[in-house]
Amino acid sequence: MASLATPAHVSNLHCPTWKTKRVRCALSPPTWREGRRVVSLSLVLSHFLLIPNRDAAHASILDKKKLDPLEAYVPAVILTQFQIKDLEKTLEADEPQFALCRSLLRSGPAASLRINIRAVAQYASDSGYGKTAFNNVDECLRSLEELDSLLLNASRNDPEASVKSMKTKINSALNALDSLLQTVPSDVLSKGKAIADSYREPEHVETGSLDPELKQLESIL
């Protein structure tokens, strides 16, 4: 599949209700379009769907000293799950826009997917779950790479690139993400889900309704 040209990096979220430091993803809820909570990608992630040599890449890129707290990655991974599920819904249209679906894999939280899930896997490795976690990472990225290839072929009117096969790849990626998130401590996962859910709420909902712990967690993001 074609890869993006710029090096892997994280995204910046410009939102009046979020005090940001280092943010892993951003998108407009839940339609993934620009709005009040607008996405500003400082650099677009490249090769986020490619699967490098695990041992060399994991050791060189995810130096533990360079990682942010685990809480900074989990909401982004959960939002990516939402995004992939929304992508699946677009495939149910009478005439799916396959080229648009490919762009969705390169925007919002999905743009930082590779670095986010590998960071989560690194934390899992520190807790003794590294083999399972990195297998989940590889399975997720492989499925999305194959999905991207199917979308490309479908955009070129290839009859063998069926929507059914695309959904199979989507389900495989989502299952891998679910399995990866099971390695996250329950308290961190719960707070990550709360932040992800609040971000997808209607724009009139203010973070003032969040409890103090969630507000503190937002300050990390």
UniProtKB/TrEMBL annotation:
Residues 69-195 form the DUF7880 domain. InterPro entries: DUF7880. Pfam families: DUF7880. This is Uncharacterized protein LOC113865497 isoform X2. It comes from Abrus precatorius (Indian licorice).
